[in-house]
Design a protein that fits this description.
This protein is about 30% helix and about 20% strand. The protein has a six-stranded mixed β-sheet with strand order 10-11-15-12-13-14, sandwiched between helices. Helix 2 links the parallel strand 4 and strand 5. Helix 1 packs across helix 5. It is globular and about 55 Å long.
């Protein structure tokens, strides 16, 4: 979001991000003349021989923490150990620096309150907004701003990015005006297909918090439509038997939900086998659990996709489903 506004306004910055952005031809830029560097943080290890989280190396002047949700349990074996990395990150903010933080995430809020006596802290939260057919209208300082993005988690991120933008000289009005043309980052609620009253999205969501936020966002945006949500357990963390209970009710906002995992992938990652019953229990029921791509397709084939929002969530592709082809097939079958 920040880089989109920067691009729209025409500021010269260097950057490193983890997703392809519209308006940018690459995900990393390093130059001799930019006075600002925008880095997307990542708590994962720097390399196999440097086991420090990447974001511990950044030494930022201004930092943002938008949310903390336990992940990478092969590296951070306990929740406390995972949260500690963000506390250590706050300690790497340079003297006189600032921390922008989301007050609606309990762990982040604790960090913001802990560090406010040491560095300047800037809290933010979800703005006042209304759901519109084309997206969202945000109200701020008596003015309305139409946006194409939707979902509470996206609007929280919007406010965080707005506070960052202000630190580099972009006023709130200019930032929100620039965001009118923002359609989202690649694989983050990315629209795949749309026809009449059918729409299909794909999303990278795979952690419990991201899964819950994304499913909830689609249901809120398409409250009068049937929401079908499919997700793939694909990462090391998600396929660990001990981690499954963290997915409790993560897809409750969907009208119909499917969870797919591949026993072969579990074996390839050298993890203890998991069963359909364990996955079902982990999600708190209310989902159909399958273990083959053919079963995913059979699940989808049972539905009439008129008046429907379809959401496909995975860091993989359900072992062979081409989302563009699937969207085209469904659109061709609609009246």
């Amino acid at each position: 979001m920040l880089l989109h506004a920067i691009n729209e306004i025409g500021l010269n910055v260097d950057y490193m991000v983890g997703a392809q952005l519209e308006g940018y031809d690459c995900m990393v830029k390093l130059s001799d003349d930019a006075k600002i560097m925008v880095l997307e943080g990542d708590e994962y290890l720097s390399s196999p021989i440097d086991r420090r989280p990447k974001f511990h190396l950044y030494k930022p002047n201004v930092a943002i923490i938008s949310g903390i949700a336990w992940d990478h349990i092969n590296v951070f074996p306990t929740y406390e150990n995972y949260v500690e990395q963000f506390d250590l990150f706050c300690g790497e903010i340079v003297s006189g620096g600032k921390l922008v933080y989301n007050t609606e995430d309990e762990e982040v809020k604790k960090l913001g309150e802990k560090w406010k006596s040491t560095i300047e802290t800037i809290p933010y939260q979800t703005p006042n907004y209304s759901v519109e057919e084309t997206g969202t209208i945000v109200q701020l300082n008596g003015k309305s701003y139409p946006l194409q993005i939707f979902g509470q988690h996206n609007l929280q991120n919007l406010m965080g990015a707005m506070n960052l933008a202000k630190e580099i000289g972009i006023e709130n009005d200019a930032f929100l005006t620039a965001m009118a043309s923002f359609t989202g980052a690649g694989k983050r609620l990315q629209k795949v297909a749309e026809k009449n009253n059918f729409v299909m999205y794909k999303d990278f969501a795979h952690s419990p918090s991201k899964l819950k936020a994304t499913t909830k966002a689609v249901k809120e945006q398409y409250a009068d439509r049937k929401v079908i949500a499919c997700m793939e357990l694909h990462t090391f963390s998600s396929l660990k038997k001990e981690f499954l209970p963290h997915y409790d009710n993560a897809m409750a906002a969907a009208d119909h939900a499917l969870v797919y995992f591949s026993p072969e992938v579990v074996a390839h990652k050298k993890l203890e086998p998991i069963t359909k019953e364990q996955v079902l229990a982990g999600f708190g029921g209310g989902v159909e659990v399958v273990t083959s791509t053919e079963e995913v397709r059979s699940f989808l084939n049972q539905f009439d996709f008129n008046n429907t929002a379809l959401l496909m969530m995975s860091s993989g592709n359900f072992d062979g489903i081409d989302y563009d082809e699937l969207g085209e097939e469904i659109c061709n079958e609609l009246l």
